[in-house]
Amino acid sequence: MSADLRSFFGRPIIIGGGIAGLMTALQLSPEPVLLLSRSLLGADNSSTWAQGGLAASFGEDDDPAMHLADTVAAGDGLCDRDVASRILQAAPKAIEGLAGFGVRFDRTPEGSLCLGLEAAHSRRRIVHAHGDGTGREIMRALIAAVRSTPSIVVVEGVEARRLAVRENAIRGVWASCSIAPFFFGSRRVVLATGGIGGLFLDTTNPWGSCGQGLALAARAGAVLADLEFIQFHPTALDGPERPMALVSEAVRGEGAALIDETGQAFLQSVPGAELAPRDVLARAVWNHLADGHHVFLDARQRPGPAFARHFPTIASACLGAGINPARDLIPIRPAQHYHMGGVAVDSSGRTSVKGLWACGEVASTGLHGANRLASNSLTEAIVCARWVAESVAGTPARRTRPAFANVYPPPAPIAVRVFLSRALGIVRDGQGLKAAARALLPLAESKDAVSDPAAVGLMIAVAALLREESRGAHYRTDFPHHATAARRSEITLEAALAAARELGHSPSSEGAK
Prior knowledge:
Pathway: Cofactor biosynthesis; NAD(+) biosynthesis; iminoaspartate from L-aspartate (oxidase route): step 1/1. By secondary structure, the chain is α/β, with parallel strands linked by helices.
């Protein structure tokens, strides 16, 4: 990187090199933009690993209203219907736009899009590429488009550490790389940093997805929303490898069944069975495992011999574990997969901090509610990227002063994984959440590398503690029922720290440690 950074000052800065970040950069073209990626484009991000596809109402028996109904039902009363309707109405055209960037979707011999079925969808509406290689194919095309766009400057191997804020307005980004820290001055910054899987022991996300975008926003004073809602995918490949390989529910959409070690189905009492919403199915699998059983996905009959052709990525992961899905049972267990919560944004992706936007998994738009409907995540990213770009482009560029680059340690999430995995898993309770908050508080208040991951974990724990009900992916044994009214939650880092300090001073804290 050149030591002279003045040419970059004033450009919009996009933090994150996944689908949300790349799409936002492309939609901003031809306005000059700076894109910061902590790794080489296409490496170490959840977008590349995405298997299922993008959900949109392309079928003749489908329409956006049906897609909305399925989304709202899965969201368990917490979706923002207006936001969800707007996103899902725009989805088909946005996916067609991806094809314009060179994405090679799977099509019938007649040229129509192949549409898959996934859990909690009432219609076949999942658009995919190379079977289960959708994320990889989209990233291939978007990276090529970004690299060939002169107005986009990509800086790889650089990680944002802090946002410079003055009077609740963005002034720039402090970033670090292997050479030295840098300061990039800008009054327009977009967070597109992905999720939080790296904060959990069992996850299908890359380890680098450890909530750094949430930490950046929180330390800048932004409001975050619905942090307690963390989706656990019910069928991750059970084995020693971490992160865990995902076995897409598209496999169940093609007829694979869940059984235990006795060969018996155990979902008879679960409405929807194999195609129940993810939160419902994850709890059912978790409870069966807790009862001492082993759980397997049986794909020997359906899709059977066609498994490797339809799902080459999953087949490869299984073969690496010594499993032939056409002949053998696939051992599975739930694993952290997606974060419904994030930085609170409006319909244009604007946060509560002036000059700061968020897009993709790091944002909380209101689409997903308490439990994301399968394959709505990539759809949300590509649709909202256009609206974010339009909002950024419509915000006048203003000069900002250079600043010395401060040194901040890279995030080190290992120490917090045990606390989040224990207290913020599929089943929760108040005592566990309080214990986690107390343990995370001193880590979040430290100046060490653990402070940012701990701060994110602390905000999640406090948000989960304050939600005294069970809804969607948030299930509490001490509050097993819905509250009378559905409400979204909001929190700031300052409020979470204050709540945790109060817990530490409560009369019962000594006995609960």
